[in-house]
Specification:
Blueprint (H helix, E strand, L loop, with lengths): L4 H12 L5 E2 L3 H18 L13 H4 L9 H8 L7 E2 L1 H4 L14 H5 L5
Antiparallel strand pairs: 1-2
Helix pairs in contact: 1-2
Length: about 120
């Protein structure tokens, strides 16, 4: 039986909070993103970021498999990752404002792999 968004929430909460990454206080947003991660896992075999275009090539998409390569610098600089799933303690506690996080993924990765 596939994992549910609620089960994924519980699992990730236990593993990510000790690392300083907290779920966004907007529970509806979090559950929608977790559902997207699970759908991507079913579709592609890996939990690629639901806020970005996946190419179905695990190696090409490696940088956006959740938690993505950009989460740490995004949370450090802006208090949130690009999609808003993870936030810092300061953001969670309302000590810093919510601001849009710019895309860090290189344009060539966004445009996709060269096709034959």
């Amino acid at each position: 039986m596939p994992m549910t968004a609620a089960e994924l929430y519980a699992t990730l909460k236990k593993t990510q909070e000790p690392k300083g990454y907290y779920f966004n206080p907007n529970r509806d947003l979090v559950m929608a993103l977790l559902t997207g991660l699970l759908e991507n896992k079913e579709r592609y075999g890996y939990m690629g970021c639901p806020c970005r275009l996946l190419w179905g090539d695990r190696e090409w998409d490696r940088d956006i498999i959740c938690p993505c390569l950009y989460r740490e610098p995004d949370v450090k600089e802006f208090g949130s990752c690009y999609c808003g799933l993870y936030v810092s303690r300061e953001r969670l506690e309302g000590k810093i404002p919510s601001v849009p996080v710019p895309e860090r993924r290189p344009v060539d990765k966004i445009l996709g792999p060269d096709l034959p």
